[in-house]
Every structure is written in C-alpha cells, then in structure tokens.
Amino acid sequence: MEKFIIKGGSTLRGEVNISAAKNAVLPIIAATILCGDKCIIKNCPMLLDVYVITDVLKSLGAKININKINREIAIDTSGIIDSEVSSDLVRKMRGSFLIMGPMISRFGKFKTSFPGGCNIGTRPIDLHLKGFKALGAEVKLNHGYVEVSTTKLIGSKIYLDFPSVGATENIMMSAVLAEGETIIENAAEEPEIGDLAEFLNQMGAKITGIGTDTLKIVGVKNLNGISYEPIYDRIEAGTFMIAAGITKSKIKINGINKEHIRPVVAKLTEMGIGFEFKGQELLIDGRNDLKPIDIKTMPYPGFPTDMQSQMMSLLSCVCGTSVITETIFENRFMHVIELKRMGANIKIDGRSAVIEGINKLNGAEVKATDLRAGAALILAALEADGETEIYDIHHIDRGYVEIENKLQDIGVKIQRVKC
C-alpha cells in the first residue's frame, strides 16, 4: 500500500504534458481483437487499467509487447483461441467488458463475469446486451456470468435509451464485421468514441456520423492491423487546469484539444480563470479572484461527470454559494466526506451538492474512494494549509500517469511513500 503526502501552499509554475486518454485507449486495445493482426498503439499511457486490459487479452491468447520507454504497445491477436476470460481479471476493471463486442463479432461467442470498477454508482450492462440481441446474438445470464453467442451478426437499427459510452463502443465494435448496415441512434458523442471510430475506420471499417448522436456502420469482411496514436486525455487536462485555479497560478499545459475541453473551459471562464490557446498548447491563468457557479453534469457535450469531483474541490475554496448537480451516477459524492475532513462546507441534497466556499482548507488524512475523488483530494491538498496524506492511491493510478512527477515538475511538494 502507498499514500501521497502533499504540503499545500505552493504556487505552480512551468509546464505539464498531457498523456493520451485512458478512456480512448481501453476500447482501442479491445478493438484490436477484431483484426486478428498486429496493431501498435503509440504514446500509450502506462496505467494500471491499461495493464489490466492487456492482461485480459493475454489470457485469451494474444501476444503483447509493452515498451514503457517509447510508450508503445504492440498487440498481435492472431493467436486468440479462448472464448472465456478469468472472472478475477474482469472484476478488476469495468472496461474489460469492452472485449465482449469484438469477441462475438470475430468468434461468434464469448463468456465473462459481470464487470467491476470504481464504486461510483449503478452502471448496468443492459444496453450493451440489448445491442447484441438486436444484431442477432443470443444472450444468457447465469450465476453472475454473461454468455453471448451467434451464428451470424446482422445489421440492425438500435436506439439507446441513454447515450451510454460503453454500450455505444461495444455495439459499434460488434457491428463492424456484421452483415449489412447498423444504425445506432441516441449514441454517446464523447470524443473517445470518435477516436475509437477513427481507429476502426483506419483498420478498414465503414463508420459515418462520427461526433453525432447517430452512427452508421456498414459491415465489412475483415479488418487490418495498423499503428495508431490516441487523442489526449481531456480529463487529465481539466484536472491540471483546476490545479492552476485552486493555487492561483499560471502554467502551460501541452496536449490540448480545445473542442474536447470546451464545457470545462466555459465553466472555468465563468469563474474568472483566463485562457490563451495556441494550437495544442494552453496558457492558463488562475490568479484572478474567482466567483461561485452552478454546474450540472450531462452527457457530452455537457459538463463531464469525470470533472465533477475536481470542480467541487475548487468551489470549496471560492467564497459564495455554488451548486453541483450530478445526473450521471447516483453515488458520485463519496469524496464529499473526505473534503469535509479538510474543512470544506458541503451539504448533500439528493443528487445536488451545495458548496459554501471558505477561505482556506486544512491538511488532513483522507482516502481516495475512486479515481476522480482521488484527483479531487490532490487538488484540495494543493490549496490546504499544512500537510495532507491521501490513502488508497491505487485508484488514482488507474487514470493518471505518474501524477506525482508531473506535479513535482510544476512546483508541488508531493511524495509517494509506503504505508
């Protein structure tokens, strides 16, 4: 077990490089199953979740070579022979369920246990299964396992009751080798879905409507291996943007897609933070006096639920009343208890959090209850008086590449120690 010890009060300076998006890389790695060929993922973030999903592919028979120095992963799925994966691996990470679509598309059957992941709320797989059924697959649920089989997948029109990211990705991957045309309506529009579609198209798929809520997939006979570099991580970028705001600092962030972070930029601009964009570089100025705001999380292009926790840390230090309403996950306020240990004044009313900003947080012993909650606690610790000790940081390691090194490079006094 490890923990972070952070001494607050530092002014940040310098620049930080954003890694590729975890939420883009995971489905792309899953999609390599479809081609039965060799693919190379460039500039890959070496994260715990990435190692988990590559272990899943290895357990099925794939050959994987990870080059940590060059941040490249070479994946050869030609040797996959198994149609069932270890339940222990799947329970480690919900994203493992993304292999279901590629496996049934290529092999016609697959069996796995229900997925695990951060305990931030109910994330049912019913929309995934609805899509598989619409394409002609048979679905069986027995004793905590999901078994899907088909003799042939046939294109269909599928309407998602909710624009689920995972369901959109899984259905899209299962449809690329199906016979005929598939239309996914009310599809999720997140940039990571567009990146997956671009990856599939470069492999030889025929997907149109990228970036909209209606995706059209015309099935093809086979796909080819390629080299590909995923998009930058908009959530990591947003986290460092808030780091500048909460410490009243001016820093440079490299690896920005302005369009992908537009919802976060809009809210931070409303608060009074300054932005200067130049290509994929951002100069962010958090030295102004900030104003309280209200936020409501929504599917993209709305404000991302993955940035809600971090924004709460910032608003806890802004004088006045702010309200955050969480519409995506019903259990994503677990970080509130930990922020209150640091002196934050937050009250929960159903799916809304009312934040009364205070002048200064205090260092304390706190626990990362999930990935983004851990990021929120790091941000709060940057502003707080004294030292903060953050436990259970394995959650943070699931989504941020060497975050302590990146923070140290811009002036944060942070150490990772055994506990």
From TrEMBL:
Predominant subcellular localization, coarse grouping: cytoplasm
Catalytic activity, as annotated: phosphoenolpyruvate + UDP-N-acetyl-alpha-D-glucosamine = UDP-N-acetyl-3-O-(1-carboxyvinyl)-alpha-D-glucosamine + phosphate
Listed CDD domains: UdpNAET
Enzyme nomenclature, EC number: 2.5.1.7
Active site positions: 118 (proton donor)
Protein's GO biological process: cell division; cell wall organization; peptidoglycan biosynthetic process; regulation of cell shape; UDP-N-acetylgalactosamine biosynthetic process
Cell location: Cytoplasm
Keyword list, A-Z: Cell cycle, Cell division, Cell shape, Cell wall biogenesis/degradation, Cytoplasm, Peptidoglycan synthesis, Pyruvate, Transferase
Binding-site residues, UDP-N-acetyl-alpha-D-glucosamine: 94, 123-127, 306, 328
All residue ranges annotated as the Enolpyruvate transferase domain in the record: 7-407
EC top class named in words: transferase
GO molecular function terms attached to this record: UDP-N-acetylglucosamine 1-carboxyvinyltransferase activity
Modified residue annotations for 2-(S-cysteinyl)pyruvic acid O-phosphothioketal: 118
Residues engaged in binding phosphoenolpyruvate: 22-23
GO CC terms, sorted: cytoplasm
InterPro entries xrefs: Enolpyruvate_Tfrase_dom (IPR001986), Enolpyruvate_Tfrase_sf (IPR036968), MurA_subfamily (IPR050068), RNA3'P_cycl/enolpyr_Trfase_a/b (IPR013792), UDP_GlcNAc_COvinyl_MurA (IPR005750)
Pathway entry: Cell wall biogenesis; peptidoglycan biosynthesis
Known function: Cell wall formation. Adds enolpyruvyl to UDP-N-acetylglucosamine.
Similarity field: Belongs to the EPSP synthase family. MurA subfamily.
PANTHER family according to UniProt: UDP-N-ACETYLGLUCOSAMINE 1-CARBOXYVINYLTRANSFERASE
Protein name: UDP-N-acetylglucosamine 1-carboxyvinyltransferase
Upper classification of the organism: Bacteria, Bacillati, Bacillota, Clostridia, Eubacteriales
Gene behind this protein: murA
